[in-house]
Task: structure prediction
Amino acid sequence: MRWVRPSVTASTVWLWAKSLLNAGLFFALFMGALPWLAHHLLSLEVPIPAAIRLPGGGLLFVAGLATWLRCLDDFSRRGGGTPFPLDAPRHLVTSGPFAVVRNPIMAAELSVIWGEAFYVASLGVLLYAALTSVLAHFLVTRVEEPELRQRFGEAYEHYCRRIPRWLPRPPRRRGGPPGTGRERSP
Result:
């Protein structure tokens, strides 16, 4: 039995409902209960300056949450599925946040977790964020990407060549190689 199955749901409304249910459960566990547990198991305060802690943590949290919601919409409308592996998108999604990085859902989730870690400034939550980041990279490179290569073939290979995994590339100028003085703004 395959652990990833394309969705059979045709209704975008139902896909959104299933995505929100999945997201709510995922959020409650990985961005709620586990950081709370990490904080209580190892509640040593880390001296993060308030100027970074509050606005930085808040910005990471809000940006991650907004990106996450946008990705759910793209999966529902363009992909015909949800982030849940047993209800996966039928079509490869390469627009919206997926046109910037290959894993915007995971990046958004990590942004929320790091936002919590900075805001709480607890050693336990910072360690949880670091471990979650390492685990996310492992899961993406060893599980998700091979499965997507198998399912979407050359279309996914082409997508991987164009779009970076985690960090967006700076925009390139047209007209000449960078550093030659012949670059033109778009």
